[in-house]
């Protein structure tokens, strides 16, 4: 992990917006803008996403940290978000998956991206999966 994660994320956001997200490597990346639960200010976070058919989901692993990432806590407080994908930006509603759907999708995510199993083990918590529903 980079020493200065905020600076790293600022650079990723700038690069994504400059080239339309086309040079982000082997993991699909989107930008998720939430409203800060305490500040009311917009917060944009670059993150990997997964698709299941037409569904778009993000993973709140926080790189295996023991607490949920701030962006997840923000969208729990206010599920109205903005999603930026290569070539498109749209408003969405963020909806954390619940059982039994969660278990099926989480197993598929870990099978396709095994590093998330390591994140789960390090975190010692249930890693939320969040569907981003286009409005």
Structure description:
This protein has 135 residues and is of the alpha+beta class. The protein has one domain (5-134): Electron Transport, Fmn-binding Protein, Chain A (Pnp Oxidase, Chain A), CATH 2.30.110. It is built from four helices and six strands; from the N terminus they run αβββαββααβ. It has helices at residues 5-19, 70-77, 101-112, 115-123; strands at 29-35, 42-52, 55-59, 80-85, 88-96, 129-134. The protein has a six-stranded antiparallel barrel. Strand 1 (29-35) and strand 2 form a beta hairpin. The longest helix has 15 residues, at 5-19. The termini are far apart. The mean pLDDT is 94.
Features:
Pnp Oxidase, Chain A; 135 residues; alpha+beta
Reconstruct the topology from this structure.
Elements: H1 5-19, E1 29-35, E2 42-52, E3 55-59, H2 70-77, E4 80-85, E5 88-96, H3 101-112, H4 115-123, E6 129-134
- As a whole number of angstroms, the C-alpha radius of gyration is 14 Å
Record the strand order, biggest sheet: 1-2-3-6-5-4
Helix segment tally: 4
Number of domains: 1
In total, how many beta strands? 6
> Helical residue percent?
25-40%
Coarse structural class: alpha+beta
> Briefly, what CATH class?
Mainly Beta
Intertermini distance: 34 Å
State the order of secondary-structure elements, H for helix, E for strand.
HEEEHEEHHE
* Average predicted confidence as pLDDT: 94
> Low-confidence stretches at least 5 residues in length (pLDDT < 50)?
none
Strand content: 25-35%
Q: Provide the CATH architecture.
A: Roll
Under CATH, the homologous superfamily reads Electron Transport, Fmn-binding Protein, Chain A
What CATH calls the topology is Pnp Oxidase, Chain A
């Amino acid at each position: 992990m980079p020493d200065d994660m905020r600076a790293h994320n600022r650079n990723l956001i700038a690069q994504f917006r400059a080239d339309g997200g086309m040079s982000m490597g082997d993991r699909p990346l989107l930008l998720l803008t939430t409203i800060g639960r305490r500040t009311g200010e917009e917060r944009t976070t670059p993150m990997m996403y997964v698709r299941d058919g037409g569904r778009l989901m993000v993973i709140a692993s926080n790189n295996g940290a023991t607490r949920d990432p701030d962006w997840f806590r923000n969208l729990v407080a206010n599920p109205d978000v903005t999603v930026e994908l290569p070539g498109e930006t749209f408003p969405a509603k963020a909806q954390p998956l619940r059982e039994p759907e969660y278990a099926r999708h989480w197993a598929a995510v870990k099978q396709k991206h095994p590093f998330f199993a390591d994140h789960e083990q390090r975190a010692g918590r249930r890693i939320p999966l969040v569907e981003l529903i286009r409005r």
